[in-house]
Amino acid sequence: MTLSRRAALAAPALLLPALLRPSRAGAQGAYPSRPVRVVVPFTPAGTTDVAARIVSERLQSRLGQPFTVENRAGAGGNSGSDLVAKGEADGYLLLMQTVSSGAINYTLYGDRMPYRPDDLTEVGLVIRVPNVIFVTNSLPVRTLRELVAYAKANPGKLNIGSSGVGTSLHVTGELLKMEAGIQMSHVPFRGAGPMMAEVMSGRVEVAVDNLPSAIGHIRDGRLRALAVTTASRTPALPDCPTTAEEGYPGVEATGWFGFQAPGRTPRPIVEKLGAEIDAIVKEPATKARLADLGGMMPGLTPDGGTSPAAFTAFVRTEIAKWGDVVRRSGATVE
């Protein structure tokens, strides 16, 4: 038998595995064909968790597979984010990213940061939210100006809580101390839930949180809101003044929450998920749920929505912005 004849006879056997194996395009076209994990890098009950569950519920309904939320808190959001950054890039592992672990921490942690921006790829921004400065009801202050006066009269006696080192809440507190010239001891927690429990008990006097996770307690009177950190008041809490109205325009901060995936996730999957998230955030019912929590539309595209490319450009801008804030405020990992 000549070599060419042997090759011809062997060809069908060599081709059979390839014919039986699904093509990459076919596999992507069928996505998702099994459950998808959504990692939240903070504890339950915070804004990150709430937003992730709202959108995951809709993704599950629209795509026909479970999108299961899994809380992996630690290191200011870095632990859960690193899990995804180093995870399987097949579309079945997603991250609900935040301004802290998605922008602030790159400067705050420096060489200790376990992942870099290129280790993750942006899928879609879900909401942007104000931060809110609030106090325990037993503290005898009702405005931000009164809090500053109280802190100056009682230097070093107040604690200010956040949901973790490196969060926008931590940095907002540092900005307030810097702009107002006051001393308060930062107390980081492993999420918004434990932090708010301590403020409501009076063991921590002051705190900063994203409005969506704090607004229920504020509306019920369990916490006293002093100011939101956006340029204008939020319709979700219309009687609460801004930090600028209270005399501190430099204390401006907006939290954001969006989906990322491991950096090498196939582009067709990223684009498909991005289109689904864009559609979800524009749904009237979803918009109403997020707005009631104090959330604002992504606003990255001309129609107010989101896309993977627009979210990537936004994240790069945020990394630069918050890097400058960290350096100016002198915030450190405690």
UniProtKB/TrEMBL annotation:
Keywords: Signal. Residues 1-27 form the signal peptide. SUPFAM superfamilies: Periplasmic binding protein-like II. InterPro entries: BUG, Bug_dom1. It comes from the Bacteria. Belongs to the UPF0065 (bug) family. This is Tripartite tricarboxylate transporter substrate binding protein.
